[in-house]
Amino acid sequence: MGRTLPSATQLMLNEEAALSRFRRALRRGDQLVFDDLFTAAQKHISAAAYAAHALPFETFLMAMLIEEHKEVMRLRKIIEVLQEMHA
Amino acid sequence: MLEFTGWLLDLFEDPREGLVLYFIDEDGARRRLIYPFPVTFYALGSDVELRALWRHLSNRPREITLRRTQRMDVFKRRMVMALAVTVQNPYEVSKVFRQTAAHFPHLEYADADLQVSLRFAAKTKAFPLSRCRVVADEDHKLETIDILEDAWVLKTMPIPLRIMTLSPDVAPHHARPHYLKAAIGDEEYHFDLQTWRPLLVNLRALIQRYDPDLLLTDWGDTWLLPRLLQQSEKYHIPLGLNREVGRGVSWHEERTYFSYGQIVYRGQQIHLFGRCHIDRQNAMLWDDYRLDGTIEVSRITALPLQTASRVSPGTGISSIEMLTALREGILVPWQKQQAEMLKPAADLFTADQGGLVYQPHIGVHKHVAQIDFVSLYPAIMVHFNISPETILPDPQGDNMVPALGLAIDTSQDGLVPKALRPLLEKRIAMKKYLASKPSWDPFRKNFSRRASALKWLLVTCFGYLGYKNARFGRIEAHQAVTAYGREALLRAKEAAEDLGFEVIQLYVDGLWVQHPDKTQPADIEPLLLEIQARTALPISLDGIYRWVVFVGSRQDKNRPVANRYFGVFQDGSIKVRGIDARRRDSTPFVSQAQMHLLELLASKDQPEEALPEAIAFLQERLRALRHRQVDLSDLLVRQRLGRKLAAYRTPSPAARAVLQLQSVGKEMRPGQRVPFLYTLGRPGVFAWDMPQRPNPQAVDVARYQRLLLRAAGIVLESWGWDEKRLTEKMLSDASQLKLPTLPKPHPEKHGHQVRRLTDSQASHALSGP
Predict the structure, then answer these.
(1) Beta-sheet strands, E only, within B129-186
(2) Could you say which of A25, A29, A79 has the minimum Cβ distance to residue B490?
């Protein structure tokens, strides 16, 4: 549609395709984790598009990290609550 | 006219007769026949140079005939013009060739340096030790020879070989032998090695009386035969070691070479004529092969028994390929002049890879099925037709190699697949036979030794595809094989996961899978069929482990390594890889103890139940060690000397042992194994082959204690007894028993180990300040 540059979604699909050999050689359980990470990165696809970074994969990694850290913070909260309940 | 049925025992070139052949007639006679056998080599090059060569050789019409011809060059994939140089007597061919090659170094040569037995087998189909029907004329000149059993027959007629064994009472490099044991049939004789004259006279009489076909010796190549020959000359008592009159024995020099990253030493060799000599101590893989396996190698490689017993499997594979080429009229290059195809650097990333290997999860796994591809790489070569000449540089059609920019030409059978197919089929047939027969089957031993010989040939055939100097090697073919191998293994993994199995480990040609409900061989059958359907390669169930333990690396036990594990199959048999019990340099004291611990674990339904017994056993072993009740020979370490002595900056224990030997005039070469004991003080070792006896009190008990507990820790770690805990336990017992305390481990070893948090520490950290 008259684009000169690939869209961020397209870029992410490209990166995922570039890693397909890596993904194939993973154990099935690890493959699912791999897919989870890309799903997580997808949540920030518009931010990644806005950033227009020269190395888009770095942005995707950052997006994965954000989702990972959010999850860590969520779990830490839960543990604190549980510990207070048991104290 | 002479006509008989028998076995071809030996054949060699002779200056007068051409070829001399020795046969074992089935009526008991031994027959010597002759055979005029002109042999041909080829020169290839420009017309001008070939004309010059023609002129150079044309003045010897009685010895040499010349002919212009077209031959198949497998690497160029077309017929090429060649000058055929036919030498009337095979005895002369190597000399004629050497002179020619020195005079015309720019020409290429083919079929130049082949064993005469290969040429004979290519022409007549008869190979060493083949059973055949022979017709000769009254001058004992061979007229026709027809084989009755080809090399691929499973159950062969036993050869009525007369075997004489000769062995000194002790290893001559270790101590001075006192007598020589000679055995033939049920009879055994002892000859005093101090009195040579009676020994020589009696030995000669024995050889004359029994006329053995095979002299099976210990240290015959390196010690016994040289000694016998020297003394026989001194006393003027010829022994008649050869059957062929008027020929001396043939000496082949010792050598040291690199193979698969290891340095290997082979002693000098002594070959006889008309009779065979095999030195059990210098023969290739004798412990696996025995005579059955060695005969098998000789038959399928068409190398004479004496040669076959001493060559590496790689040379064997080369011979099979050369024989196939000779039969097909394909040129066998003398020195290969062939460069790797040009490819972009990025392609090297995908091309230059080995097999696919996973990092296993460390620890115990229960009910794991081990599934192996049967001879994966040879099967790939045969099935996908991979051969140096079938690799097409420009990819086209649908025969693309996975992930490589190469394609395979499947329009005709390649040379390597053609050579390997019967070998592979025979191995699979033997494996099937062995799997289907009970343990008392009379052919079992014979088959398993021969199968082992086939296995080693098949294992090396892949390496020879990629070896730069192999005559029918080509690196792209090698890469294609590993690429297909990785693809096959991934497809197998996907098949397993699709059927609900968890993949525990992948290792080049095998996979370990686990499923909570599928724990019997019949449950695995559908998976085998599925993998076979997806890969088209033969696969078999090696067995189902009751439990299997993957252990970490020797440097850092938390780091997984691919091929270090032990486990117990459902039938109770134990499989061990990469740990002390398997390593050839570990001491018998340690490896036997480790194996015993494994047997203890295997003997119980739940391995945990064996722990008290295991601890008691270790205490008993340590007590025996402390009280010098362990045989010194069980404490021997056998390490390989890795390089020349001068090349060591800090000599390894093995090098220090060699230095000791040097001081008493015993020389060792790199690649030889040096047996020694660890002792107290300097130099910390005692070489076993020193003339004086070792002092049992000087044995470094603490060191052996450490080796034992480390090996025990590897086995027991998964059940809570690692080396550290074992050491503490033994130490506390030792203080009561007054055992020597263990020296502290070197502090460096703790430096980079990440401390693990205990549970209480973790919860403390989580709750925060």
Answers:
(1) 131-136, 142-147, 163-168, 179-184
(2) A25
Q: Give a yes or no: residue B79 inside a domain.
A: yes
- Residue B769 CA to residue B764 CA, distance in Å, equals 8
User: What per-residue confidence (pLDDT) applies to B758?
Assistant: 46
Q: Which residue numbers in chain B have pLDDT < 50?
A: 747-759, 761-763, 765-769
Mutate to test the interface with B, among A27, A77, A79, A82 (most CBs of B within 10 A): A27
DSSP H/E element including B484: helix B475-498
The span from the CA of B681 to the CA of B407, in Å, is: 63
Domain finish residue from B222, B244, B274: B274
SS3 labels along B677-689: EEECCCCCEEECC
Residues B709 and B690 in one domain: no
Rounded to whole angstroms, the Cα distance separating B109 from B43 reads 5
Q: Which domain covers residue A19, as residue numbers?
A: 8-86
Residues in chain B, total? 769
Please report whether residue A1 resides in a domain. no
Q: What distances in angstroms separate CA B113 from CA A5, A52, B94, B286, one per listed residue?
A: 64, 67, 7, 27
Give the up-direction half-sphere exposure of residue B471: CA atoms within 13 A in the CB hemisphere: 29
pLDDT, one tens digit per residue, over B679-730 is 998 889 999 988 888 888 899 999 999 999 999 999 999 899 999 999 998 8
pLDDT value for B249: 87
Same domain, B143 and B219: no
Q: Are residues B487 and B570 in the same domain?
A: yes
Give the one of A28, A29, A79 whose C-beta lies nearest to B766's C-beta.
Answer: A79
> B559 with B648, same domain?
no
Using the Cα atoms of residue B42, residue B43, residue B47 and residue B52 in order, give the sign of their dihedral: negative
Please tell me the predicted confidence (pLDDT) of residue B258: 67
Question: What torsion do the CA atoms of A13, A17, A18, A24 make, to the nearest 10 degrees?
Answer: 140
Backbone Cα Rg of chain B? 30
Which pair of tokens denotes residue B468?
A: 């730069």
Paired with B276 in beta bridges are: B214
Residues of B in contact with A87 (CB under 8 A): none
pLDDT confidence of residue B520? 92
Q: Into how many domains does chain A fold?
A: 1
Interface contact B650, partner A, CB < 8 A: no
pLDDT at B345: 64
CATH number at B226 reads: 3.30.420.10
β-pair partners for B167: B181
Regarding whether B361 and B508 lie in a shared domain, the answer is: yes
Neighbours of A30 (CB within 10 A): 11
Element (H, E) at B766: helix B759-767
ipTM over 0.90: no
Residue B691: domain span: 638-696
CB contact under 8 A, A83 and B497: no
Residues B381 and B238 in one domain: no
Q: In B565-700, which ranges are continuous DSSP H helix?
A: 588-603, 611-626, 653-663
Residue B740, preceding bond cis, omega within 30 degrees?
no
Helix/strand/coil for B533: helix
In this structure, the number of other CB atoms found within 10 A of the CB of residue A16 comes to 17
- Residue B254's identity, in one-letter code, is E
Is B356 close to A25, i.e. CB distance below 8 A?
yes
Is A27 close to B503, i.e. CB distance below 8 A?
A: yes
pLDDT (tens digit per residue) in B309-362: 988 888 899 899 999 999 999 999 886 555 566 666 666 666 667 778 887 888
Q: Which residues contact B216 (CB under 8 A, 6 or more apart)?
A: B163, B164, B165, B166, B278, B280, B291
Chain-centroid distance, C-alpha B509:
19
Mark residue A45 as left, alpha or beta (left: phi above 0; alpha: psi -120 to 50; beta: remaining): alpha
CA-CA distance, B695 to B450, in Å (whole number)? 44
Asked if B10 and B1 touch (Cβ cutoff 8 Å), the reply is no
Instruction: Enumerate the residues of chain B whose CB falls inside 8 A of the CB of residue A24.
Output: 490
